[in-house]
Amino acid sequence: MIDRRISTELAERLAEVPAVALIGPRQVGKTTLAVEIGESRPSIYLDLESDADRAKLAEPELYLAGHADKLVILDEVHRLPGLFQILRGLIDAGRRRGQRTGRFLLLGSASIDLLRQSGESLAGRISYLEMRPLDGLEVGDDQIDRLWVRGGFPDSFLAASDRASQRWRQDFIRTYLERDIPMFGPRIAAETLRRFWTMLAHHQSGLLNAAEFARSLGVDGKTVAGYLDLLVDLLLVRRLEPWHSNAGKRLVKSPRIYVRDSGLVHTLLGLSSYEDILGHPIAGASWEGFVIETLIAAAPEGTKANFYRTAAGAEIDLLLTLPGGELWAIEIKRSLQPKLERGFHHACDDLSPAKRLLIYPGRERYPLADGVEVMPVVVAGHALLAEV
Question: Which of 14, 194, 341, 383 is the most exposed place for a label (fewest CB within 10 A)?
Answer without folding.
Answer: 341
